[in-house]
Amino acid sequence: MGYITELRTILGSRPLILTGSCVLVFNEQGHMLLQKRTDSLDWGTIGGSMELGESLEETAARELYEEAGLRAGAYRLITVFSGQDMYYRYPHGDEIYNVMAVYEALDVEGEPQIMDDEGLELRYFDLSQPIPEINPITAYVLQNTGYIKMPD
Known about the structure:
The chain is of the alpha+beta class. It has 3 helices and 8 strands.
């Protein structure tokens, strides 16, 4: 049982502050890899919550492999987000306030493949085009890092 699963057995779906990382992966054309999530059926970045004893960069590396079967030679820290804008309510009712480190994966090795039950599909998106059914946290991250502009 993972750390967050253990917390949920005690606290139920009440809001938790969760620390984690997301990983931005780009192909040669500059398109970004996103995964279609099984829980919300929208498109989100690769990433997830930190486990006990992990660093934020180790979380990014683990999530990149667990969710997409990829490894990176290095990670570049872009920024850290927190606060009210990082609130999320999962479809099953669990509530969280994310503290999220955003990394760019460099020197990525491998071909993207679904490795766990969190994703239905992996696809590269041209960020100059609208992304259908984008996850709200992903939209916030990409907009506030300057990777996409949201329509007015």
